[in-house]
Write a structure and sequence with these properties.
It is a single chain. It is built from 3 helices and 9 strands; from the N terminus they run ααβββββββββα. The chain is of the alpha+beta class and 196 residues long. It is elongated.
Length: 196
């Protein structure tokens, strides 16, 4: 009987070791997949034109080489959409610019909640082909924004239109969607102290 118990114990140890090995492999594969998601996500955004992880468009060196084309004007229309408890809008709805000319627009946002929130802006362009010619130097969309309770903020976008923009494009619409990142409200320290 003791010999049979020993055999069962050995079989059980082998099965446990096999299971542990499989679980370690699965954990490593899951970690690798999670790690690979960021570059995969960036590639999908670039291919589809959904620019969630917005990099800076140009360097200062590129900027110094730009030339202003005063022979034509492009109308830039500004739009704002929200996904969450925000008031979010551009300070002007449109402006005319010369390709190569540095311009600035300001967006205003107000967190209408009584707690801090993190948010991200996603830009989109119409016509979509214009996205390659809309060069942002400074933009609130380059990183997440953290707004305190009932905080209002003005956020600039400094940009220029590449003079290589096709002649038939007379109007470009820049639209931002501003949405909450995370989800659960963060309790203030006074609220947390009241609970303890």
């Amino acid at each position: 009987m003791a010999e049979q118990d020993q055999k069962l114990s050995d079989i059980s140890k082998k099965l446990n070791a096999t299971m542990l090995g499989k679980l370690i492999v699965i954990a490593i594969v899951m970690f690798g997949f999670g790690y690979a998601l960021v570059p995969i996500y960036k590639q999908i955004c670039e291919v589809t034109g959904i620019n969630i992880l917005t990099p800076k468009d140009i360097s200062a060196k590129e900027l110094s080489n730009s030339q202003i084309d005063r022979s034509r004007e492009v109308t830039i229309e500004f739009d704002a959409n929200t996904q969450g408890p925000w008031r979010f809008r551009p300070t002007v709805t449109s402006m005319k610019v010369h390709p190569g000319e540095m311009s600035q627009i300001v967006y205003e946002v107000v967190n209408k909640q009584s707690y801090k929130m993190d948010a991200q802006a996603i830009p989109s362009y119409a016509p979509q082909q214009a996205s390659a010619f809309f060069k942002k130097i400074e933009c609130f969309c380059f990183k997440q924004q953290t707004l305190g309770p009932n905080e209002a903020r003005q956020m600039p976008v400094v940009f220029y239109i590449d003079p290589a923009l096709p002649e038939d494009v007379k109007t470009i619409t820049l639209s931002y969607t501003f949405f909450e990142v995370g989800g659960a409200p963060k309790l203030s320290s006074s609220t947390e102290q009241g609970k303890s």
